[in-house]
Amino acid sequence: LAAKGCWVDPLSMQPQKALEAIGKSLQAQYERWQPRAKYRVSLDPTLEDVKKLCVSYRRAAKSERVLFHYNGHGVPKPTLNGEMWVFNKSYTQYIPLSVYDLQTWLSKPSIYVLDCPNAGTLMNAFENFALQRYQESAGLPVMVQHPPGRKAPPRSAELRTAMQDVILLGACGMNETLPQNVSLPADLFTSCLTTPIKIALRWFCGRSLLRNEGLNLDMIDRIPGKQTDRKTLLGELNWIFTAITDTIAWNVLPRPLFQKLFRQDLLVASLFRNFLLAERIMRAFGCMPLSCPALPPTHQHPMWHAWDLAAETCLAQLPGLLSGDPSIDYRPSSFFTEQLTAFEVWLEHGSRQKPPPEQLPIVLQVLLSQNHRLRALVLLGRFLDMGTWAVDLALSVGIFPYVLKLLQTTANELRQILVFIWTKILALDQSCKMDLTKDSSFMYFIRFLEMPDSAIPPESKAGAAFILSVVCHNHPKGQRACAQAKLVDVCLGSLQDGPTDVISGSTALLAQWLCLCLGKIWEDSFELTMQAFELGVTEKLSKLFNSASPNVRAAAIFALGSLIVLIKSDKQQDISQEEVSEHIRSPDRMVAERQAAGLLLQCANDGSPMVRREVIHALGRFAVAHASFIDIAHQATESLSGGYGRRHNRSPSAMSDLGHASFGSSGDANSAGMREHRHSAPDVKLDQARGSDASFTPNGSNGVPPVAQEPRGPGGEELSLTYSQLYQNTLATIVTANFDPSPRVTEAAKRVLQSCHFQVVPLKRPAVQKSTSSFSFSPKRNKDRSKLHSRFSMSSDRLSSMGQQSPGDQASSAGGGGAPPANIAMSS
Predict the structure, then answer these.
(1) Closest-CA residue to 374 (of 417, 337, 405)
(2) What is the pLDDT of residue 455?
């Protein structure tokens, strides 16, 4: 009969020493799978010893998982009442220990390994007790099973809730005894869970034809190498075993269950990989190992044949390796090469409508090998490029930690494909940016942008800019980290590599994402926007207004508009009220933001609706940030217009030209360039909009013109005529956009006016006159504007579709009527 326990022969030493040796061996086996955990062995414990140990470990573990391993060999079988056996204080007799008490002492989360005969009885009782506890706590009718170990409770939502955060692994079912094969240890189930390679090879050796060619069990114990060294025989076998068991689980289990058991906890994942082996081996001896959550049968999965072939190929070299001949070297297995070839064949013929490739978990394991890494990454990139469903599958199998670790490599040949893979991941799941920021992995993409190698295509650098923009999107920590890494200088340097008037194709894609990245770096940050102003980014961005690509122009406008910071609510803002006040009164910031607004007005008549819409959103930020000045500009406009119902005779283009007269030579040059721009749209006058008259009228003025007075700021300071005209032009441009041919621009303008508490309403005229439109001023000017911030940020509905596309998926729009702005954003 089998005698060994944890590979220790108890007959070869004194009983007490054998007991201690078995305990130490079991602890060492568990430590190999999870070295950070704390273990304690309790040998032949009493009831009080078990209680004290369980309570102390639950208290120390807090919310962490506790493992309880029960080795019930040599003691009576568990009872139908759900009781296992321990000693009394005098060690004269066995006394029962109910699993109900174990539940009380260990609580949740926990995992129980029950290596004893009749283990199914304990598992039935455990589930019945857990269900009873849940029903009592929830005030539900209690369904008590007597005896509790006779039958498992019916599968139900209540049972799933009761057994949540509890894992059970049993060696066999009800009324089953453990196998007693002399070539295998007595604790076969424990050996499968803790030493899977050793037990798998010993079991395979007894069934293989290699035993007739000099292979024996003694050689199995002398396999050279370490399990952690994949270049050795033992290490490669362990590597192949991990890949195969992961593949079996991923192809058989539901995705949520696979994530729970194989991707959340290192020790749990190792135990369940090895449990698949235990099911295969113990079923051959008439035992059916059980688990909770229950797994479907896997002992006949086709991937086990791949394991047998790999094991046979490796073990065939074992006699020569152990012969002592120094000329004999280990030849690596061809398992991973063959699996990559099978994956490549699937890529040529597979699709979303067909079953997913079963080799996907193996491909992830191959990423650990330098010999196959490049090929595996290229194939993985081809798979991710098939669509978001492919990215979701790859994330479900656990791609993220692998590709995150690869960002530490310095191999140049991997850079482009890694950037491509990360664009696909972040386009689907932007939460991954937290991990990129945590250990400064985002620096990989900054260094990629800095590379001067002309062999790198612009599309790849655009992908890196997209990744960095996601890192900064709604992520202040990422913004600060990227700013400290001089990402602004890197982006500006890349934008200055060539003239803006020849930007097109892939170069335009790069320029577009560089602008978006810049905007995301300083968006909603007082400190970073001031640093950007000091770097002179407004002039550099304005040069892109001449680009032939509407995507580039729109992205530049977004970056420029993001320099205008909106004051958030007290709960959201990360600055004090004194700093807010200083921001409002800061002359440097006010001048810089006015200059940015003047540059934005130049693009108000762009031929692309996407660009015009971005202009309106950017001007909306300016209008909200400078709301007091906008009010004064409205009053001054009403005074100059002569009162209610007067036409506004200036066209928006004339206002724009007038408003830029004070911004220096660069503003004049840009203004002249925009007047001659071939993408300019015809001027839209207010009196032409919808064939009706328009005027600016304060709400509730009853047609009486206000008294003309000199415009003054919120602090009483006198405004210059030029700045007054700038605010008037800003207001007029937003109003004019209400009658834009593009519905998207019209909708944006209405939202901006609503945020500024203005509205365009029809005037009441006599019946013989045509109805006209009037620009009304809402009296609710003291309303809190804290809710207005998101309306002018790039993170909301107007730009949601871009977050689901990587730069390589986009096509530059032609700038024609109604082109959506989805090419310049990321979803929140």
Answers:
(1) 417
(2) 79
Q: Which amino acid is at 32?
A: R
Decide if 126 contacts 168 (C-beta within 8 A): yes
Give the chain's radius of gyration (CA, Å). 36
Q: What are phi and psi of 444, to 5 degrees?
A: -60, -40
Q: Could you tell me where the DSSP H helices lie in 473-576?
A: 476-484, 487-495, 505-522, 526-534, 537-542, 550-561
Task: Read off the pLDDT of residues 597-622 as tens digits, 9 standing for 90 and up.
Answer: 999 999 999 999 999 999 999 999 99
- Taking Cα atoms as reference points, which of 244, 365, 250, 383 lies closest to residue 310? 244
> 717: buried, middle or exposed (CB in 10 Å: 19+, 13-18, 0-12)?
exposed
User: Which pLDDT belongs to residue 700?
Assistant: 30
- 29: enclosing H helix or E strand: helix 15-33
Angle (CA) 399 366 244, round 5°: 85
User: Residue 770, Cβ neighbours under 10 Å: how many?
Assistant: 8
Going by C-alpha positions, the residue among 198, 268, 280 that lies closest to residue 6 is 198
pLDDT tens sequence across 388-397? 999 999 999 9
pLDDT at 21: 94
Handedness of CA 517, 520, 521, 523 (dihedral sign): positive
Q: What global pTM score does this model have?
A: 0.79
- Per-residue pLDDT at 623 exceeds 70: yes
Enumerate the H helices of 718-825 as residue ranges.
721-737, 743-755
DSSP code of 411?
A: -
- Read off the pLDDT of residues 524-575 as tens digits, 9 standing for 90 and up: 998 999 999 999 999 999 999 989 999 999 999 999 999 998 865 444 444 4
Kindly give, in sequence order, each residue whose CB lies less than 8 Å from that of residue 289, ignoring residues fewer than 6 positions away: 169, 170, 171, 172, 189, 275, 278, 279, 282, 283
Distance, CA of 560 to CA of 563 (rounded, Å): 6
Helix 388-397 to helix 233-252 angle (10° resolution) is: 130
Both tokens of residue 358?
A: 């079963």
Q: Which of 526, 524, 528 is nearest to 482 (CA)?
A: 528
β 83-87/94-98 pair status: antiparallel
Q: Count CA atoms closer than 13 A to 787's CA, side-chain side.
A: 6
DSSP state of 606: B
Alpha-carbon distance values, 703 to 181, 485, 609, 697, 754 (Å) = 103, 57, 35, 7, 22
- d(C-alpha 699, C-alpha 676), whole Å: 38
Classify residue 682 by its DSSP letter. P
Q: Is 531 exposed, middle or buried (0-12, 13-18, 19+ CB in 10 A)?
A: middle
> What tokens does 689 get?
């909009």
Cα–Cα distance for residue pair 71/265, rounded to 1 Å = 23
- 437 has pLDDT over 60: yes
Measured at the CA of 92, the angle between CA 90 and CA 98, to 5 degrees, comes to 85
What is the residue whose two structure tokens read 């994330």? Answer: 395
Tokens 């857990």 sit on residue? 130
User: pLDDT tens-digit profile of 397-424?
Assistant: 999 999 999 999 989 999 999 999 999 9
Q: For residue 66, what are the β-bridge partners? A: 110
- The average pLDDT across 216-244 equals 91
Q: How far apart are CA 296 and CA 248, in angstroms?
A: 11
H helices present in 602-701, as ranges: 609-625, 627-641, 652-659, 664-675
- pLDDT band, very low/low/confident/very high, at 631 (cuts 50, 70, 90): confident
The region of weakest confidence among 124-138, 371-385, 431-445, 635-649 is 635-649
The first and second tokens of residue 551, run together, are 């995507």
**Backbone torsions φ then ψ of 744, nearest 5 degrees:** -65, -40
CA-wise closest residue to 511 among 555, 546, 472, 545: 555
Q: Give the C-alpha separation, 710 to 691, whole Å.
A: 33
List residues bridging with 168 in a β-sheet: 112, 292
Contact at 8 Å (CB) between 365 and 398? Answer: no
Q: Do residues 602 and 671 touch, judged by C-beta distance below 8 A?
A: yes
pLDDT averaged over the chain?
Answer: 80
